[in-house]
Automatic annotation (TrEMBL):
GO molecular-function terms, A-Z: 3-methylbutanoyl-CoA dehydrogenase activity
Gene3D superfamilies referenced in this protein's UniProt entry, alphabetically: Acyl-CoA dehydrogenase/oxidase, N-terminal domain (1.10.540.10), Butyryl-CoA Dehydrogenase, subunit A, domain 2 (2.40.110.10), Butyryl-CoA Dehydrogenase, subunit A, domain 3 (1.20.140.10)
Protein's UniProt name: Isovaleryl-CoA dehydrogenase
Keywords for this protein: FAD, Flavoprotein, Oxidoreductase
Cofactor(s) needed by this chain: FAD
Sequence ranges assigned to domain Acyl-CoA dehydrogenase/oxidase N-terminal in this UniProt record: 10-121
Family: Belongs to the acyl-CoA dehydrogenase family.
Organism of provenance: Rhodococcus aetherivorans
Acyl-CoA oxidase/dehydrogenase middle domain: residues covered: 127-220
Lineage of the organism: Bacteria, Bacillati, Actinomycetota, Actinomycetes, Mycobacteriales
Domain (Acyl-CoA dehydrogenase/oxidase C-terminal): residue spans on this chain: 232-381
Amino acid sequence: MTSANELWYTDERRALREAVRGFTRREIVPNLPAWEEAGELPRSLHEKAAELGLLGFDFPEKAGGEGDFIDLMVANEEIILAGGSTGVTSALFSHTIGAPHIAAAGDPWQLDEFVRPVVAGTKIASLGVTEPGTGSDVGSITTRAMRDGDEYVITGGKTFITSGTRADFVTVAARTGGPGHRGVSLLIVESDRPGFTVASRLKKMGWLCSDTAELVFDQVRVPARNLIGQENTGFLQIMQRFESERLTLAVQAVATAERCVGLAKEHATVRTTFGVPLAERQVIRHKLAEMQRQTMVARTYVRDVTARWAAGEDVGAEVAMAKNTAVAACDFVVDEAVQIHGGMGYMRETEVERHYRDSRILGIGGGTNEIMNEIIAKRLLGAPRVDR
């Protein structure tokens, strides 16, 4: 029987790791500082990633995809381990949150018009769920899509939208029915439609190379064929993708921690104080040991849960635990890595400084640490009693 860890190191995935590692060192690492200054990735990176086959993972063959979810996680890992960042992965793979609902619905026209181009790297996809007034409470969405003949007219706003300034289309959650989660649908909105506006490019603590936007829809008209699946089924479609997003963030957190252990170890080996390498000082040695321990424990658990989820098991609570475990390990490790680097750890030219900034979002995106604990508590204790 193949262990969860062995699934990540088959011969094919070892070759994938080598290919992604070379791609990252060649195409990403030399350009990352400039991309952070620019606030976005170039479209050419999507095209080059597509040529390598990286954008089709976890998409069906009928949509131009190949490979599975673990292949996608391996690609995320190696980009970070080879010197990239979670900012890069969030922007480069924004189609993995913006297009899967379309692929799952399986409409041939939508597959050809939207999914195949993002897999080929010629279009960029984004997901519009979060709103300024409701956050990620999908059941309280206020963006409205009114049916008018063969069209929907969309009015409202979205915020914190990854790749929102560059997206060719956005998968938008909008209210087509009554209040609550049963009245929400998903519609594809092309960014060149009249009334679609990028209201602002949001400035963030981290993920500087990943553009994030606030979007406004002012009576944007889209054809009815842009409806994804059945009307008023958007809530279920969104919920079905949350677990994959959470596992992705967990994998990114572990990879960030692993990268920072290596960077801290390297620095401690070459940096001397008072004539002695830092690595020979017990306090530093013990810091590195604890950083490695937490990283390896988190990696083992995250990989186990990911393999079980990919095999179709119902592991929703375990996914929440995996995400929080990975985030906690990452938070600890990046902080210690900066501390070991001393003053250089505070400088923009030092890689651990970027990981320190970038990692802070991992405990917020995809569901906060607190939301994850509520999911765990519900599985442990049952649904809370509501007194009437």
